[in-house]
Each structure stands twice: as C-alpha cells, then as structure tokens.
Amino acid sequence: MYIPFDELPPHARLWIYQANRPLTEVEQTEIKPLLQAFATEWSSHGTGLQASAKLLHGQFLVLANNESATAASGCSIDKSVNFVRELEQRFEVSFFDRTQLAFLNKGQVQLVSISELKNKVATGDIKEDTLYFDTLVNNYEDLQTEWPRPARASWLSRYF
User: Fold this and answer.
1) Chain centroid to CA 116: how far?
2) Which of 21, 119, 12, 132 shows the shortest CA–CA distance to 68?
3) What percent of the chain has pLDDT above 90?
4) Domain limits, the chain
5) Counting Cβ atoms within 10 Å, is residue 64 exposed (0-12), middle (13-18) or buried (19+)?
6) Cα separation of 117 and 65, whole Å?
7) pLDDT of res. 75
8) Do residues 114 and 100 make contact, with C-beta atoms less than 8 angstroms apart?
9) 156: which residues sit within 8 A by CB, 6+ positions away?
C-alpha cells in the first residue's frame, strides 16, 4: 500500500540508493511513477507493505516502509533490490557503486571517489562541516533532521 513520502512515520525504515550521476529531468519524470507503482505493489509474504519511494536531489532513490505495520522480509528486500537493478538497466545508471561519496557543495551534489577522500580532506576541499549524504541513514526521522549531515557526524569523522 502506497503512502505519500511526507506522511511516513518517523520510525519508517529507509533504503537509500545513490546514483553514480545526476538523473536528467526526463529520467526523473519517467522514474517517479515507477517508484509509486513499486511502492504500491511491494509486499512481504503476500501482505502489502505501507511503503513509499522518492527521488531526492535528483540523485538519490529512497525506498521506505512503515515497519510497525508490516516488516520487510528478506524476500521483499530482494524484490526491492531487483527493482533498483531494473532501473539501473533501463536508465543506464548505477545505484550500487559504493566507491563514490556524495557531498553538498554550493547547493549541488558533488561525488568524490573514496580514493580521493584523504587528499580532499588534506587540501580542505572537504571539511568537518561539509555536508555529507550518508546513505546509511535508515529511518525517516533521521532523513528529515540529519540528512545531509556534517561529515564529522558520520563515519567520515575518522578522517578529521
């Protein structure tokens, strides 16, 4: 059962997938109804999930489920991964490249390779207060209040 993204409860569980490039306006327009259709049909062992999905910042695909209504099972999570993989193929984009980190720079999403991270910190391009899109955020409340978050408040704190 689809619920609007802004009506999710604070504890709703999230899965955030970061695209390896910005999605075009045309791609975003095509993806949005696919997200709603997936969330509407998403189920766990035959029981519909109270689910939602949204594109954020033109580069992040967020799937959500109200776990207090019906928990997502391993099979339902597999369905969501397969759905995201289908989007990858259709739009020639990767949502599973974990070698790129996303930061907010002058209002734009900036991708930085993990291999470049130490150098970017050393040169001051990335600072403790640089906003980082932490894809490990796993509930709606944290997404609303702490995303993006300062790099120092994430697992990146070890670099400062």
Assistant:
1) 22
2) 12
3) 84
4) 5-91, 101-136+148-159
5) buried
6) 32
7) 82
8) yes
9) 101, 117, 132
